[in-house]
Amino acid sequence: MTGQLALFAEEQSSPAGLQYITDFIAPELERELIGRVSALPLQPFQFGAFEGKRRVASFGFRYDYALQRLQPAEPIPGWLTPLVEKVETHGGRSTRIGQVLCTEYDVGVGIGWHRDKPHFDRIFGLSLGASCKFRFRRPAGEKWQRYTLEAAPRSLYMMAGESRRVWEHSIPAVEAKRYSITFRTMADRKT
Ligand SMILES: O=C(O)CCC(=O)C(=O)O
Ligand SMILES: [Fe+2]
Question: In this protein, which residues make up the domain named Fe2OG dioxygenase (predicted)?
Fold first, then answer.
């Protein structure tokens, strides 16, 4: 009995290294960013047969699944600079964003279970337009330990430590159109 209660309590605890703040930006900026992102030449995410129908634009770098390595992408556009700086300030000393990914999820679109590529270090995600269930899982014996973060519009999550390297994350089909801007620091920086 005690064991079950303990397990239940453990299942609810959030992944170590996951941070979440609401209202990272104001509603006016959210509207502006949705306009900017939806005006980008978004392309269906190129991966495998089971990939969702989300549409993306990468800046700084993009991960090429065929070549299995990072490729240079368009530089981060000027309209994103104040936001990148705000995320870097939020991330604390020596936070340097190297890649930005803008994503559009139409109603019914999500993203399957994955961990982000090891070429990146910390991951920051700004939600726009609608909330989503940001789900986490990691193996616990024969089962999965799970945690769900309800990511509200205008909120920012940060994945570092175990939440980044051990846990997988996914987003089930969204019920309203959602955009996200993901900011990633690079692993193995020389400076
Ligand atoms: O849309 C998001 O907030 C996260 C998307 C994601 O997990 C990814 O692109 O790796
Ligand atoms: Fe991810």
Answer: 96-187
